[in-house]
Amino acid sequence: MAKLSIFITLISLFPLIYSSFSLENPTDRRILVLLDDFAIKSSHSIFFKSLQTRGFELDFKLADDPKISLQRYGQYLYDGLILLSPTIERFGGSLDLAAVLEFVDSGHDLIVAADASASDLIRDIATECGVDFDEDPAAMVIDHTNYAVSDTEGDHTLIASDNFIQSDVILGSKKIEASTNAPILFQGIGHSLNAANSLVLKVLSASPSAYSASPKSKLSNPPSLTGSSISLVSVVQARNNARILITGSLDIFSNRLFRSGVQKAGSSTKHEKSGNEQFVTEISKWVFHERGHLKAVNVRHHKVGETDEPAMYRINDDVEYSIEIYEWSGKSWEPYVANDVQVQFYMMSPYVLKTLSTDQKGLFSTSFKVPDVYGVFQFKVEYQRLGFTSLSLSKQIPVRPFRHNEYERFITAAFPYYGASFSTMAGFFIFTFVYLYNK
Questions:
Q1: What DSSP state is assigned to residue 267?
Q2: How many domains does the chain fold into?
Q3: 365 shares a domain with 438
Q4: pLDDT tens by residue, 282-315
Q5: pTM assigned to the model
């Protein structure tokens, strides 16, 4: 009976494993959403509906549910994790800080939203990802210049920001509400980036007039975070291509701010709708690999004029190298177009560095002459660009010198030496003849 139960459980896991993240279909994925309260499911329904419309399967659970588990029998059940549970002190089930970090280390994606009531657990997760929230638990981002006029409480914590990162791959080629320039509404806590972490990037920053402090108390000491150094939304792309989004506002995903009109202080223009919905939709496309996800296929190299890949090359051979690179568009693989993909012919250090030309259809190629050095070389492509998944490809190939019977019988450059040798012999013969027969 026990064996039958295990068999039924394994059978039930097959659909989950089959539908998990794959290189061929990066967006056919299941996402676990952990909430503080199921009320968030309705108050943030537009965001969730956007994900479901794009083909994601969401599994909603309370963050303290004792049945939470990210993996079973060594297989991950989910490919993405959304933490909209800023107050949780301890996750339920087998989930903890180490499990979340291991989930990311395994190449899976993560969204973390905090607010003024953020727990130590949420702050620790952010810190491990290279983001440090303001240590003052009562602090919020305040801006007395760039606040929303609709901030009825008058403490100017509902700020309007349009300081975006300039990256089409992260935020899309269509500018946020380009026709109206509607800013993003943000209400929450700010954070700074760990200077030692080169993988974390600001996506949305505060204005130079912003600062982080408690809105209920007077400033007695200088704020720890001020100006544009305050990040409102940050992203991380790990070296294993896992992607993370961290923000100090749970409301930035809410229906209320999605639908809210916005008028920036000091501006006479009132926008009927904020840019939050487009901003969150576009950045979630990046986080869940619907944009900026690259794959490389058909890596080839051969001698010029041939098609078969040899077991080794000889010094001074003429070589052709080609690779196909495609980008996932959310529905299909499209040819990737760029002029900065390079290949190295590498042994201890690059002997050849060539920029690959493209046919605009995904094929990148170049040709070069093998250097006059023999040993074990590698064809290496290390492609790392802002917002794109990194490509790291290498292919090893030995290079040999000429064999003894492959050298030219007479080398053109040696003709002067040949002439010197024969002229010496001729001179010696003439000298001998003259010496012997001269009376």
A1: -
A2: 3
A3: no
A4: 999 999 999 999 999 999 999 999 989 999 999 9
A5: 0.83
